[in-house]
Write a structure and sequence with these properties.
- It is a single chain.
- With about 140 residues, this protein is an alpha+beta fold.
- Helix content is about 35%, strand content about 25%.
- Strands 5-6-1-4-7 form a 5-stranded mixed beta sheet, with helices on both faces.
- Helix 2 runs antiparallel to helix 4.
- The chain is globular, with a radius of gyration of 16 Å.
- It holds the Pfam family DUF2000.
- It comes from Nocardioides mangrovi.
């Protein structure tokens, strides 16, 4: 029987609302991979079906995906940094790179306030994350 579990923390991804669907999905996937790397304790146990076929483990808590315009992303980024939370970022430049080394170089080449953010991810206390994504809409 399922029970409602209230987590003390929240994982949120915020994507820019002018991205194509494939871009939104790509940004979300990349950002969630950063969350699982930074907080491996959030990952549950591997899955298996009734036949014993093994499947990958997944995050053990929901990921809420929000959307907003460029200003909303910039504000959320600033709020997260003011709260000393680690943020995952995805910039428009990353759509033009093809590997992790080039991705990191593209981000490193731009000052924080000039990043062309198209997505960000944050994990932290529920109330802090709620304040960070304030103004964003839950992705439909």
């Amino acid at each position: 029987m399922a029970t409602d579990i209230r987590f003390d923390t929240k994982v949120a991804v915020l994507v820019r609302d002018d991205l194509a669907t494939w871009q939104r999905l790509n940004v979300t996937a990349f950002l969630v991979s950063g969350v699982t790397h930074a907080w491996p304790q959030l990952v549950g146990e591997p899955y298996a079906d009734a036949d014993g076929t093994a499947y990958l483990a997944m995050l053990g808590q929901p990921v809420l995906v929000f959307e907003g315009d460029a200003t909303t992303l910039t504000q959320a980024h600033e709020r997260a940094l003011r709260r000393d939370l680690t943020v995952g970022v995805f910039t428009a430049d990353l759509f033009r790179t093809g590997n992790d080394d080039d991705n990191r170089a593209a981000v490193a080449a731009v000052r924080r306030d000039d990043l062309d953010l198209v997505g960000l991810a944050v994990h932290g206390p529920r109330n802090a994350v709620d304040k960070i994504v304030k103004g964003a809409r839950l992705h439909p």
